[in-house]
Design goal:
Elements: H1 4-15, H2 19-22, H3 25-31, H4 34-61, H5 68-76, H6 78-109, H7 122-142, H8 144-174, H9 192-206, H10 222-248, H11 254-259, H12 263-271, H13 278-307, H14 326-342, H15 352-368, H16 378-385, H17 391-419, H18 432-451, H19 455-466, H20 468-474
Helix pairs in contact: 1-8, 1-10, 1-13, 3-4, 3-9, 4-9, 4-10, 4-17, 4-18, 5-6, 5-17, 6-7, 6-13, 6-14, 6-15, 7-8, 7-13, 7-14, 8-10, 8-13, 9-17, 9-18, 13-14, 14-15, 15-16, 17-18, 17-19
Subcellular location: Membrane
Organism: Ciona savignyi
Pfam family, one: AA_permease_2
Length: 476
């Protein structure tokens, strides 16, 4: 059902979200200088491309949907695979979708309020966010073809929005606005921890490079289209991100960028004049496309995990007519709908895990008719409740967790090279590429802990391992 263009659109549509428009300043804050910041952005693009190529090889070896799940299952057994499915399905995917939908709601409602009015009410934001989620769910449950067509349209809009910013930057450069590029490497050199945190921020904007592996069973001619889609999407996005950052600095100094609450909005205000409203529209367009792509792949994790017996079998069912994993998609809806009704994520992000886990076990109990006690997971909920209310900290938390699994997946590729040297590989990358990704993953996970230990890294690791408390009594 998913063509080459649809595959490229899925990767581009998931990667280009709110990050490049709203908060690229996280990279520059940790880099300490403009030149170092651009090197980190370029490094993020190269690392994401290497990761995507490694995933392309192992994905064509094991052409099953579910992203990292079937790879970890084949290489290291059911426990690492279950821990990935647990972490991704219960918290990472649903909370990401909730945060994206809230971002959409805030930008969509902002033009309706003038400067004298207060910001949109919490109720209005939540209702708009729920509407976004329900719309995304309807599209994903209706048809795979419909989903990929929408992804193609929204991916085009995302690219167009960045092209507008880039053209604005070219115009400003033609006018001689190059003063902010002078002495690009002046300032304090970043340390190991700052470089790792800068990569966390940059890789957040690149998040989504592995999304095609989640739907590989639905990709037409995957042995050919998977590597082509990966290379095409990564080159396109990396180039757009680099040029967009250049455009930002044609109108803002380093300090002005760091002080801006929304970098793209500040750029639009200085370059577009009366057309400044275009930026919020494109942010909404971009975020909705990311919501669509994230939801499209999220249901496949639950679906594949259930098919292997790790989750309830009801989640392995397909819609009889539309052939979409509707129960698995709706599982993610219940998480986000519960979150929208109960807490304001911008004010209480640490409650995301509480309501996601609660909804998960309620649904699992109803599906299996095995009513396990919710008290057993209260300790793990308490861990999540103390996660700091800070956007950068949340990025660090999720990036730390995800790069554990990215590194494990590339380690699985190296394991297959050693144990199965003669196994057919429709795509084979130079061995140095997965080695670089593994080394980078270890550095990204360990560098912040060694240089400046913080408790939330321990919380992240403990939450991942908490899945074992449910694996042994209910799955094993």
């Amino acid at each position: 059902e998913v063509s080459l263009i649809g595959g490229i659109s899925l990767i581009v549509g998931t990667m280009i979200g709110s990050g490049i428009f709203v908060s690229p300043k996280g990279v520059m804050r940790n880099a300490g200088s403009l030149g170092a910041g651009f090197l980190i952005w370029l490094g993020c693009g190269i690392l994401a491309t290497f990761g995507a190529l490694s995933y392309a090889e192992v994905g064509t070896m094991i052409p099953k949907s579910g992203g990292e799940f079937p790879i970890l299952l084949e290489a290291f057994g059911p426990i690492p695979a279950y821990l990935f499915a647990w972490t991704s399905t219960v918290v990472l995917k649903p909370s990401s979708l909730a945060l994206l939908s809230l971002t959409f709601a805030k930008y969509a409602l902002a033009p309706a309020y003038n400067l004298e009015c207060s910001e949109p009410s919490g109720l209005a934001i939540k209702l708009a966010a729920v509407a976004v989620i329900l719309t995304v769910i309807f599209i994903n449950c209706a048809s795979v073809k419909l989903s990929t067509k929408f992804l193609t349209v929204f991916s085009f809009g995302k690219v167009l929005s960045l092209v507008i910013i880039i053209i604005g930057g070219i115009v400003m450069l033609a006018k001689g606005n190059t003063k902010h590029f002078e002495d690009a490497f002046s300032g304090e050199a970043p340390g190991v921890r700052e470089i790792a945190l800068g990569f966390y921020q940059g890789l957040w904007a690149f998040d989504g490079w592995n999304q095609l592996n989640y739907v590989i069973e639905e990709l037409k001619n995957p042995f050919v289209n998977l590597p082509r889609a990966v290379i095409g999407a990564m080159v396109l996005v990396t180039g757009l991100y680099m040029l967009t950052n250049v455009a930002y600095f044609t109108t803002m100094s380093m300090q002005e960028l760091l002080e801006s609450p929304a970098v793209a909005a500040t750029f639009g205000d200085r370059v577009l004049g009366v057309m400044v409203w275009v930026i919020p529209c494109f942010v909404c367009w971009s975020v909705f496309g990311t919501c669509l792509g994230s939801c499209f792949t999220a249901g496949r994790i639950s679906y594949v995990a259930a098919r292997e017996g790790h989750f309830s079998k009801v989640l392995a069912m397909l819609h009889a007519k539309r052939m979409t994993p509707a129960p698995a998609v709706l599982l993610n809806v219940s998480f986000n709908e519960k979150l929208m009704r109960t807490c304001k994520v911008s004010k209480f992000p640490h409650l995301v895990g509480f309501y996601n886990i609660l909804s998960f076990f309620i649904l699992l109990s109803l599906a299996t008719r095995n009513f396990c006690s919710l008290q057993s997971c209260m300790g793990f909920i308490a861990i999540l409740m103390v996660i700091p209310n800070d956007f950068d900290t949340l990025i660090d938390y999720f990036s730390f967790s995800m790069w554990i699994f990215h590194g494990s997946t590339c380690a699985a590729l190296l394991y297959f090279r050693y144990k199965l040297p003669d196994y057919p590989r429709p795509v084979k990358v130079p061995i140095v590429i997965p080695i670089i990704v593994c080394i980078a993953a270890v550095c990204l996970v360990m560098a912040p802990i060694i240089d400046d230990p913080k408790i939330h890294y321990l919380f992240a690791f403990m939450f991942i391992m908490s899945g074992l408390a449910f694996y042994f009594p209910f799955v094993h």
